Request: fold
Amino acid sequence: MNITPGINNINSLRIVIFGTRNYIYIMSASIQNICVMPGLKPYVDDILLVESDGKDFDCGLDIIEPDGTVKLAIALNNRIQNYYENNTFIAQADRVTMVGMFDSPFKMEALTNCKTQLLIVRLNAIGAYRFININHESSVNKFHQFYDVLGGPIRELEDLLANEKNVLQKIIKLQMYLQGIFGKVAPDLIFDHCVNKIIGTSGSIALKVLEDDTGYSSRWLNMKFKQKIGMGPKSFASIIRFKDVFKKVVTQRDFYLNDRIYLDHYYDQAHFLKDFKRYSGQTPSEFYSKS
Reply:
């Protein structure tokens, strides 16, 4: 199994985990991008292994912005505490946590100051419903024990991973499990088409275009999207738009407002600043002061 080397460019790294910069800001250890098995590539954006000796977790992790994915996270040898608004969720070691689609930022930190390994699978919008056959509206902005979502087979997977000491073998077994359950949910071609159009335009597409493309009403499309990923197409497109421009902001930080690189995605500066604050939880000035 191949693993790509850890990326050395800090600006590139800042948008790897959860589509954000936060692990790089806090952690001094390595992030490895795992080679995704061919059968999973259309549905898994990436699989990431984050490793730290734990010393940098004392101050917690910074804000984690929405990125339009549903995540499966496994803390391999530590517990991870997640914060969203006034809610706290503790992910136990060797248990799979499902992180639903978020439309607001959240925070996380390791509970103990020791070696920590965190395995993250980012399922794109199509992969989310193909692998997790639930009504996703109830999982928006929430963390779940994956066992509570899908039941018995997940506990078997968790025990399998816990009993495997080699990290690479854990990753292989996890991917094989995902391949094994794929195909049990039939593709929704209308939904898939809309998702691909939204991603293909970086979120800059009107709902009317999707109505014309599919022949379905906005009400029907909203219902379909909420069932499949938990939010409507307009909200999903807004996150995808922010995610795309955020990458540019991170990698072109100097005088980015004067460069107006956001105008490919936003009507004006005020529109961009509103979304930046909404999805990052801070203003651009606050963001850069922490970088």
Remarks:
- The CA atoms of residues 72 and 98 lie 5 Å apart.
- The first strand starts at residue 31 and ends at 34.
- Confidence is low (pLDDT under 50) at residues 1-28, 57-61.
